[in-house]
Amino acid sequence: MAWSFKLARIAGIDVYIHATFLMLLGWIALMHWSQDRSLASVFNGVGYIVALFGCVVAHEYGHALTARRYGIRTQDITLLPIGGLARLERMPDKPSQELAVALAGPAVNVVIAAALFAWLSATGWHESADIGVTTGALVPRIMVANAFLVAFNLLPAFPMDGGRALRALLAARMPYAEATRLAASIGQGMAMLFGFLGLFGNPMLIFIALFVWIGAGQEAGMVQVKSALAGVSVRSAMLTRFRALEPSQTLGDAVDLLLSGSQQDFPVADGGRLVGMLPRSTLMKALAAAGRDATVGAHMQRGCGAASPDEPLEPVLARLQDESCRTLPVLAPGGTLLGLLTLENVGELLMVISATRTGYHATASTKETHAS
For a Cys staple, 95 with which of 26, 31, 171, 247, CB 3.0–4.6 Å? Predict the structure, then answer.
């Protein structure tokens, strides 16, 4: 995520902190200083936020480590002002596994709240009426905040934990794509409620509403893509009419090819075998640094991923979105270059699939009307 800085690597997972989270800490410090003009007040306020987000990190590790049990890797965890975000490489395919992953995060907060309550009880702490998320001593506040995190995260606002749990329960009784659409619709309804309440109270609810609304729509879209690409291979989407460069050619030759057609990224092949890629962005930087007479081989990217023509397209699409090279070469088993896979080509294939299915349903509906 842009504007994120690596904080630590724990249990093989990188933890990042977003720049806006540092702005939140600064705002908290300034607010406490303006109220009491006391460094102790500033340390208490910032310390509470740091401790609270430590619980948020533990919450995200609950998701990540449970997903790991099912062979699902977590790319990273990022701290944002509205909470944490664990990026799983994919969601579990089985509803029971998704339910376990979704509930693992809130379960961690339940354990933290229960442990703090037990500790406070053992040390003679007595419940006070003024204890809340923002008032009272530090440890009781953290306990109450964890209880609040459990209740808030279990709201059926997809793609929050409660919404994912709802999707998992629905998917046990209906097709996965239909369950996702229903859970996303409920989530966007909850987002509208958050936004409305935010107008009259906590402005943070407005940001949460935007996150839920956009996240629910994106999740529904990704599931629709996954459903549409089920059973489709890379061969169906790859570009077979393309131009390749040789390492000995110049950047000027690459510019001529770029301007003469719509292809933006060029495979570099030596004797028919792929040796690198020359994306448009790399070409522009090389031109500025070395000029048109520099060779392609001196500036091409090595180590870009590749795909096989018979691979399932859906997981390859996920790789394509994460690759620094935005074009994947498609190679035969012997290493011969067969084609290119781009996001644009996959998008066009999805449009064709959507149009074909729409036409099929429309035709079927017409036939039923005539028959009746």
Answer: 171
